[in-house]
Amino acid sequence: MATPSHTVAICAVRELTPRMTRITVTGESLQGLDASGAPEIALALIDETGRPVRRRYTARAFRPETLELDIDVVLHGHGPGSTWGHTAR
Predict the structure, then answer these.
(1) What is the per-residue pLDDT across 19-54, written as a single tens digit (0 to 9) for each?
(2) Per the confidence metrics, is the pTM higher than 0.85?
(3) Counting runs of H as helices and runs of E as strands, what totals does the chain give?
(4) Which terminus of the chain has a smaller tally of CB atoms within 10 A, N or C?
(5) pLDDT(1) > 60
(6) How far is CA 20 from CA 10, 17, 29, 70, 71, in A?
(7) Euclidean distance between the first and final Cα of the chain, in Å?
(8) What is the pLDDT of residue 36?
(9) How does the average pLDDT of the chain come out, rounded?
(10) Could you give the residue ranges of the DSSP H alpha helices within 1-89?
(11) SS in 3 state form for 24-44?
């Protein structure tokens, strides 16, 4: 079975600690998402050379009534995940 893919937009960004940010995403494609059991998700990001890369995160919360998914991003360096966490708006 193919892994489902979702197109989402950032709807909120909140600093949890100086080294962790919670990014909330939303999108119609999240309709019917089974986010039970703290699922692991993969984000398609772009690295510093412009190449596509994937970074894995654990979904922290999913609110199906508003189609919002929370992702906590640790800010620990200059890699694609940390860059996304620092610059997400």
Answers:
(1) 999 999 999 999 988 777 667 889 999 998 999 999
(2) yes
(3) 1, 5
(4) N
(5) no
(6) 16, 5, 26, 13, 10
(7) 33
(8) 73
(9) 90
(10) 80-87
(11) EEECHHHCCCCCCCCCEEEEE
The total number of residues shown for the chain amounts to 89
Q: How many CA atoms lie within 13 A of 45 on its CB side?
A: 19
Largest CA distance in the chain: 39
Identify the bridge partners of residue 42 per DSSP, sorted by sequence position. 56
Q: Determine what percent of the chain is predicted with pLDDT higher than 70.
A: 96
Between the alpha carbon of residue 48 and those of residues 41, 45, 52, 80, 83, the distances in Å are 22, 10, 10, 7, 9
CA distance to 7, 9, 60, 75, per residue, from 37 (Å): 22, 23, 10, 24
Report residue 84 as tokens.
């996304």
